[in-house]
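Onboarding guide, step 5: your first structure request.
Type a short instruction followed by the sequence, for example:

Predict the 3D structure of this protein.
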Amino acid sequence: MRRLLSSETRAANPVGGLRSRLFAASMLLFVGLFTLCWVALLAADVSYTNSRAFVEVLTAPETRAALWLSLWTSALSVVIGLVFAVPMGYALSRYRFPGHALVDSIVDLPILLPPLIVGLSLLVFFRTGVGQFIEGTGLRFVFQRRGIVLCQFLVSASFGIRAMKLCFDGIDVRLEHVAMTLGATRAGAFWRVALPLARRGIVAGGILIWTRAFGLFGPLMIFVGSVRKKTEVLPTMIYLEQSVGRLEVALAVALLMVALATVALVGVRLLIARER
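The system replies with structure tokens like these:
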């Protein structure tokens, strides 16, 4: 009996030994190399800049204005992006309609194409009759703060839509069917079953949208420009400081962005871990 129990215990435990340790070490090697690359880059940035540049960045009113503009525009882009990402991700996951493959491909276009194309296309669009009519109503976007949100939304929303589609793909549709057999409508099954189960996907989609919107640069330079205390955000501020030879200040702004992004990502991950 004791011999039988010991054999069952060995069968239930994972197979160990030298090969397993070597395999784990080879996998962790890639983790270490990638992490080391980023640590080396950040260490080089920190060593190149100086405390005076950090003080100048943290106390300058231009930096505070760019920081505030970056934060509220990217946050608004997250809200608008999720408003589109949740229903679009659900529709692409659950329904098949004419042109489904085409729409699915269009969703991925902003992910694959250079973001610069978005700014250029927006600039051309608002020179057409439809674009001029929109601006004529008073809803102006070109070289305006609204244009920042529009650029951020068009570039980053695809990441949220793709994340939500993958999330809904992973939710068993039979759960919604069971809810409908119990008297729920299709909308009721979505609100009471699918959406609560997609909560982590919504958080992941929001993170992807925010990180892409927060660091957006190219389209903003074309479509809204970079006017101090008006349309200048942190990424465009880095470019302008570097272009006039103030590399230490540009690196200090870059490290500020890295710190903000790290705090936001770690905070969200802690909230998810606490929820689990």
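Each response can be followed by summary notes, for example: The chain has one domain: 58-275.
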